[in-house]
Design goal:
Largest sheet: none
Strand content: under 5%
Shape: flat
Number of helices: 8
Structural class: mainly alpha
Radius of gyration: 45 Å
Distance between the termini: 99 Å
Amino acid sequence: MADHNDRTPQIPGQRQEPPAEPTREKKKELRLAALRKRWNDAWNDGGFLHNRWEDVRRAPERGWHGMANWVKAALGLAGIFLVILLLDSATDALADSAHRLLTAMPRVQDDADTSNGVFAVVDQPIRSYIAAHSASLPINASTVYAVWQVVGLFGLVGGFFRSSGARLTWTAWGAASIAMVWSAAPASGRTIATALAVLAWTAASALALRGLTLRPTFFTHIHNAGHQIEPHIHLPAPATEDTPDNVHPLQKR
């Protein structure tokens, strides 16, 4: 049965061939034309790429609070990647500098007289304790002694600037130092050496723990609530049958 919409005249006995499919080149041209149309539509007013370009172009005049959220996210990610690249490039230099700093201290040996005076009374037992108890560690005694000094300096300087973490570090460092002096000092002079270590740490704590006080802090809160006056509204009683007609409530004019 012939299609009513097909207006092509048909010859009786002749077979109608289907329309030829487009060639590969024709399909490629159609796809390129569709892509070109989408690209042009995206850059027209109101298009996706046009709006994104406007966000970037107006970002400097809008400022951080007014720019688009995706621009903020892009800038934040770019900053993070930049920091990661800088840290990655500086890792070798920082590691080399830290290694030189930690190995710059003289070799710590047991019973080695590397200090003199009053300082040796406290320093020598600490050196001896570190040398005797760091043999099984993967780092040598010189590195442990250097780390111990760096931690003490950090606690002292950070505590001077009233850092809570640095003050906790200073307290723990002082307690550990006094314990090492007590453990490694000669038995005949252990009490004197420990007392000197406590006095030295206490004197240095005047800088590291400055501003702290043992006095309790009182907070006085004064609540001054004024006398509250509750409003009273008096309404005239409703008229009853016993009320005379010549009595009327006062009215404001």
